[in-house]
């Protein structure tokens, strides 16, 4: 991972959430308040604009800027959670380039931030149910010596499997938890956006 790739990744997330805005909002209309697509699109548009004006000298500085912008531009729960994740990732990456193992460490810090802020666990039907398996897959590949692209492809597949696995879960955190048993039978919107974020990472790294 390097500064250019991090920038391209964040831009690719922006394009993906724009393309899938209606889908994310539909998922959130089933078990939430129908704003997840709008929140993600607004947040990553703001990030893309904010990054146009800066020339960070480390991968971490770029990701911290992205996170801070998400926190200040998104009102829903997902803004502080993703913003906190990007900031925590960034704080571990204080050089212009990171190996895939260093990036795995950053992804782990991001997940820890989501868990600290939102107090959700695996199985609660949140973004964590896509993020945790994605991190595990990424780390396994990176520890085995894989580069960013191979690790990110495995992570994207695991995130998508994790997102699908949220469908039969009953939500125990966030707005969807207010629905109780009626949250069963729908995929979690935040797990779906996490899958987009990891797919964007894989596509960006493969295209390099
Ligand atoms: P809001 O719920 O405020 O409308 P969004 O619709 O943008 O915010 O985001 C909803 C998503 O946020 C959920 O689908 C879920 O994945 C995630 N989420 C909500 N609360 C938590 C939490 N406590 N921990 C982890 N993720 C959460
Ligand atoms: Mg919502």
Principal-axis shape equals globular
Fourth CATH level, the homologous superfamily: DhaL domain
The CATH top-level class label: Mainly Alpha
How large a portion of the residues is in β-strands, by DSSP E? Answer: under 5%
Secondary-structure element order, N to C:
HHHHHHHHH
Distance separating the two termini: 10 Å
Which CATH-level-2 architecture?
Alpha Horseshoe
Description:
It is a single chain. The protein is built from nine helices and no strands. With 208 residues, it is mainly α. Helix 2 packs antiparallel against helix 9 (189-207), helix 4 (59-73) packs antiparallel against helix 5 (78-91) and helix 6 (100-118) runs antiparallel to helix 7. The longest helix has 19 residues, at 100-118. Magnesium ion binds at residues 28, 32-33, 35-36, 76, 175. Adenosine-5'-diphosphate binds at residues 28, 32-33, 35-36, 39, 76-78, 81, 114, 118-120, 126-128, 173-175, 188-191.
Task: Provide a concise account of the structure shown.
The protein has nine helices and no strands. The protein has helices spanning 3-19, 21-31, 36-52, 59-73, 78-91, 100-118, 128-143, 148-165, 189-207.
Core attributes:
single chain, 208 residues, mainly alpha, Serine Threonine Protein Phosphatase 5, Tetratricopeptide repeat, binds adenosine-5'-diphosphate, binds magnesium ion
